[in-house]
Amino acid sequence: FARELPDILEAAKGGRTHVPWKDVREWLWPIFTEAHGQFREHFLQLPNIPDLQQANPPQLFFGIHRVLLEHAQLHNDKWCLPSSAAVFDPWYTDPETPLDHHTAWPFADERPVFVTFGSMGQHNLVDDPDVLLASIREALEACGKKGAVQWPTWKESYGENGTLTRVPYDLSFGWAFPLCCCAVHHGGIGTVSECLRAGIPQVVMPIAFDQNF
Fold it and tell me: Of the spans 18-22, 90-94, 150-154, 196-200, which averages the highest pLDDT?
């Protein structure tokens, strides 16, 4: 900020914007520091760089147990909730059972690793899906596991040698995760919550936005 957006930094820290610096520091920083300008301009019809003097603090809803947020604060005394945050308990839809179990879930005798990158794959935010899935396939082969892959586009080469198998893109996490030994995903808050709900380990490979957090 100091190097590229000094005026915004000074105004926000000096309290001359509607959106306080604390909110920018805690969760709004990606819209300034990542390549969101084109998305804002062409898809949302908004200015390339947000105007903090005109905008009001956006409402941020946390669908997560309060105890997890309290735990985060205990381990990082510099972290705090944004001023406009509202915390709720996790919200879930009832798990939907697929109409055809054998077609939707071809893993009768083993617990696979579930691989999904959610909307990141759907919106082409994954730089090189071929390299990513090849790397995951190699890792699964090394540990003798199969992978259930939820991906919007599929090439036959992804499923070569039977390590990776595609599952329906709309398959419910609430139904599938309890049948898995682990999940590999992008770190979306909904996917994280479903892994916690199912009680399975998760390996997070963040792509963008707040997923590193």
Answer: 196-200
CB-CB contact of 117 with 185 (8 Å): yes
Q: By the 8 A CB rule, do 97 and 175 touch?
A: yes
Cβ atoms within 10 A of the Cβ of 159, count? 16
CA distance 94 to 154: 28
Residue pointed to by tokens 């005394």: 77
Strands 113-116 and 85-88: unpaired
**Could you give the CA distance from residue 140 to residue 200 in angstroms, rounded to a whole number?**
17
pLDDT of residue 47: 66
146 close to 115: Cβ distance less than 8 angstroms: no
Residues 177 and 195: their CA atoms lie apart, in Å, by: 7
Q: What are the residues facing 203 on neighbouring strands?
A: 184
pLDDT in tens, 3-27: 877 887 888 888 777 777 877 777 6
Token pair recorded at residue 5: 């957006």
Residues contacting 73, CB < 8 A, separation 6+: 79, 80
